[in-house]
Amino acid sequence: MGLLDDKVVLVNGGSQGVGAAVARAAVREGAAVAVTGRRPGPGEALAAELSAAGGEARYIRADVSDAGQARSSVAEVIGAWGRIDCLVNAAGLTSRGTLLDTTPELFDQHVAVNLKGPFFAMQAAVADMVARKAPGTVVNIITSSAHGGQPFLAPYVAAKSGLIGLTRNAAHAHRWDRVRINGLNIGWTATEGEDATQREFHGAADGWLDEAAARLPMGKLGQPDEIADFVVLLLSDRSGVVTGSVIDWDQNVLGGLD
Predict the structure, then answer these.
(1) pTM (global) more than 0.70
(2) Burial class (CB in 10 A: 0-12, 13-18, 19+), 183
(3) Which of 3, 86, 119, 254 lies 20 to 30 Å (CA to CA) from residue 130?
């Protein structure tokens, strides 16, 4: 028996990076999975890969920074399978900005992707669970930077910190509905998006990943497949009654000093 047998899972921001790893792990554990993303190419390729491996998967084109599209992605899942059991909000924007140079437009972009999108996807998903009087689970992919972060992450930290508060608020509000909502504060992770960010904003060259890994306690950045296994556990019944938890998934210890 897979951890997610007969579950219907939506992964927003699921066409690459951590989201794609979660989709693969969920299918492996028996779920039917839908992934959203703005670009059809990667999303359709992932859905085809999962289907070819024997899974039930589909791609939904959606920009979750738009509240209507965030809600409609849930509606499309419900239309296809009759329900939604699990939601993972993995979409994220990590473009740089400090307190002094962030424009209102950049700030709004971060809030739209990193906070508003999860809010309205959760609204639609939890509404379906409550209407059916059925249990469900939500996992929000957040960031260890929400504890403070680097100066160049000001709008990102502001939005993701809001997602921590939202996660706990929604978990408290819907615990009697047996809807469990948790968050994962992931640290520095080796994804396609992170590679692009390092090259665009920090002038990183080929080999930057190996150099960065050598400076970290475990000798590597966070790995999407390892994060995905943990997300699947939180989505599954094996995580028991846990709700409202925001877990630091990182190799640096908050409050630890050298």
Answers:
(1) yes
(2) buried
(3) 3
